[in-house]
Amino acid sequence: MKMATVQKRGDSYRIRVSCGYAANGKQIQRTKTWNPDKDMTGHQIKNELERQKILFTNECKGLSEVFVEQWLKEYAEPHLKARTVDRYKQYSERVYKAIGSLRIDKINPRHIQKFVDGLKCLSAKTVRGYASFISTIFDYAIKQGVVKNNPCKNIVLPPLKQTQRECYSPEEAQQFIKLLEKLLCLF
Predict the structure, then answer these.
(1) Cα angle, residue 1 at apex, residues 58 and 13 outer, rounded to 5°
(2) 104 near 67, Cβ under 8 Å?
(3) Is 48 within 8 Å of 36 (Cβ atoms)?
(4) d(Cα 140, Cα 83) in Å, to the nearest integer?
(5) In the list 24, 27, 77, 158, which could disulfide-bond 124, CB 3.0-4.6 Å?
(6) Bridge-partner residues for 29, per DSSP?
């Protein structure tokens, strides 16, 4: 996402923000018109215009940067283990590329499913980690009143492969214990 550009249009200003690219390659842009108060000085207009640019840029970011950064600071860092927070920060880069240009309140299960389906090169456990990361952010967004539903609740995740672990039979375990007892007697 790029910083906003401004174009003066008579007494108003058009603020334009590039929000990335759609799947078809077209650039996604949002615009907003800001009208300064009649009694504002040139210096006041300049300062307020900069503030409006920042506010509008943040408003356009959606899931990608603003909300995830807020979630990391307000929820993840105080409540989760440092290792988990580090892993989530690593996950965020891939998530930003996939759905970062969308506003958080516009993300639906189809967006999340498409993202998950695109992670086929990763293990099922890692794919589930990404889904958990996104779901946790949406759960926080619900608590904050930003969204009403968690789109991750309706997606299909790859099944985890159950691996059969080889274990000692009771007889083998008894033999192993007897062997250990003999070894311990030597010391």
Answers:
(1) 60
(2) yes
(3) yes
(4) 20
(5) 158
(6) 18
Spell out the residues 6+ positions from residue 177 whose beta carbon is closer than 8 angstroms to its own.
none
- Between CA 123 and CA 152 the distance in angstroms is 18
- One digit per residue, the tens of pLDDT, for the chain of length 187 reads 567 899 999 999 999 987 665 545 567 688 999 999 999 999 999 999 999 998 887 776 655 566 788 889 999 999 999 999 999 999 988 998 888 767 788 899 999 999 999 998 999 999 999 999 999 999 998 998 888 999 999 999 999 887 777 888 899 989 999 988 888 887 7
Output the DSSP codes for the chain.
-PPPEEEEETTEEEEEEEEEE-TTSPEEEEEEEE---TT--HHHHHHHHHHHHHHHHHHHHTIIIIIHHHHIIIIIHHHS-HHHHHHHHHHHHHHHHHHTTS-GGG--HHHHHHHHHTTTTS-HHHHHHHHHHHHHHHHHHHHTTS-SS-GGGG---PPPPPPPPP---HHHHHHHHHHHHHHHHH-
* 173 vs 165: CA distance, rounded Å: 15
